[in-house]
Specification:
about 120 residues, Four Helix Bundle (Hemerythrin (Met), subunit A), single chain
């Protein structure tokens, strides 16, 4: 493990679940935004960034389905519906990539991250 990986691992070990989720959402939103802002140079990275975002939302959706999930039923339902939207939008972008289509995924991730950070 190199020094930066060791630092990142130690830096995150003291965080709560909400903060970890918030940072993951911000990180994926930042990757998508970087691609959007530098489309010609970075569009080759789009598939990987979309896949990371999809995996993150798969984890979030799975957490909402856990028996011990502390979220109220209405919140779980809303997050699951949002995850389905993210999955559908991801497929649309992968099929017909255009930089402006990334805005909605970026905005969703950032808004959820802000909400999580407020609860941390």
């Amino acid at each position: 493990m190199n020094i930066s990986q060791n630092y990142a691992q130690n830096d995150m070990s003291g965080m709560g679940q909400s903060e970890l989720e918030s940072r993951a959402l911000i990180r994926t939103a930042s990757s998508l935004n970087q691609i959007k802002e530098h489309w010609e140079e970075c569009k080759g990275e789009l598939d990987e960034a979309l896949e990371k975002n999809r995996k993150l939302w798969t984890i979030i959706a799975a957490a909402m389905n856990e028996a011990d999930c502390p979220q109220p039923q209405e919140v779980k339902k809303n997050i699951l519906n949002l995850a389905v939207f993210v999955f559908q939008r991801t497929m649309e972008i992968a099929a017909e990539p255009e930089p402006h289509k990334l805005d909605i995924l970026i905005n969703i991730n950032m808004n959820i991250a802000k909400g999580l950070a407020g609860n941390a």
